[in-house]
Design a protein that fits this description.
about 200 residues, alpha+beta, Aminopeptidase, 9-stranded mixed β-sheet, 5 helices
Amino acid sequence: MVYLVGEKVLLRDIVKEDIEDRIRWETKEVEWQEWDAPWENDQCSFCEEKYKQSLLKKIEATEQVDHFRYGFEICENSKEKKHIGWVNAYYIDENYAYTKEKKNIAIGINIPEISSRRKGYATEAWILFINYILDNGVEDIYTQTWSGNSRVIGLMGKIGFLECRRLKGVREVRGERFDALTFKLDIKIFRNIAANID
């Protein structure tokens, strides 16, 4: 089990007890999906059993202690260790499109638990995750969102991500057109901010 511990949150490998939360967040408490790539969300195509099997494979993979982690579960760093969300990494190509090839790393974050938002948990979770990625030899880190997601854009700017690409009007969300945004981490800015953030 890998743990990354901060003052407010801890990041850890996924465990079987997390599956119930993850399924609930995919099927019942789905408000977060209005912000995380909402043009991709299709509840009609969600298969609970297939999703559960994919999570069980992730759990099995965590038994290999020495491999790079492409994601962690986020828990409050409290006595209860409440499970509140996750961070993840994926690859994008030279055109900033998702790819299965090992190219440029992009990261994401989700905190479905509404009561756990606006407490600095996302900021600390990303700082922990980014430091983990940098410590594993990655030099460039990206993230992506859409121009209507002001909360995550604020988080990106707060820790040193700078916009590197904007595709005008390519995302349709709730009947409106928005820009697709890609950001690249300025590591120098990140190091300075991460050292001084509360």
